[in-house]
Amino acid sequence: MSNYKYLNKLVPEDVHYLLDLSEFKELIEEMLGAASKLVTVEVDCDQIEDSYDILNFRPMVILKEIANLSEENRHTILNTGFSLGQPFDSGDFAMKKIFGENYTIIAATEDQDGDFFTVEIPYEDFAKSQM
Questions:
Q1: Which residues does 92 contact at the CB level (< 8 Å), separation at least 6?
Q2: What b/e string do you get for 113-123 counting C-beta neighbours within 10 Å, with b at 16 or more?
Q3: Contacts for 56 with CB less than 8 Å, ≥ 6 apart
Q4: Which of 71, 80, 86, 122 is most exposed, with minimal Cβ within 10 Å?
Q5: Angle at the Cα of 129 (from 103 to 15), degrees rounded to 5?
Q6: What pLDDT score was predicted for residue 48?
Q7: What is the pLDDT of residue 2?
Q8: Residue 102 has what pLDDT?
């Protein structure tokens, strides 16, 4: 008899994802589409401690323009929704495109397997995304 029949009776509250930063970079390049040829993409993270001494992690997506971009090429980049020179805005934009509005980065980890974020979303949002 399978243990899964018992597990199916429980409803999780949250769903956790491990998002490797190299995988995150690939997703961003996919979101950029044709504009990805106009920039180089770097991904980083900043830790911010709030007034309750809780660490918050905020991703940064740094888009560096390839030299001598025309105004048309700049608009091509901006039309993707990413911001040039605003790494936190671009990081927020990418995370919302992937996880929706209700996500929390609960950890940023560096180890021998690479760097990754642990991202938590409410189960209801996960269930909606599976439909």
A1: 58, 59
A2: eebbbebbbbe
A3: 47, 48, 49, 50, 105
A4: 71
A5: 45
A6: 85
A7: 58
A8: 94
Average of per-residue pLDDT values in the chain:
91
User: Which of 118, 93, 95, 96 has its CA nearest to residue 106?
Assistant: 118
Q: How far apart are CA 120 and CA 39, in angstroms?
A: 29
Give the tokens for residue 62. 């740094």
Residue ranges, the chain, pLDDT below 50: none
Please name the residue that has the structure tokens 């190299």: 22
Spell out the residues 6+ positions from residue 33 whose beta carbon is closer than 8 angstroms to its own. Answer: 80
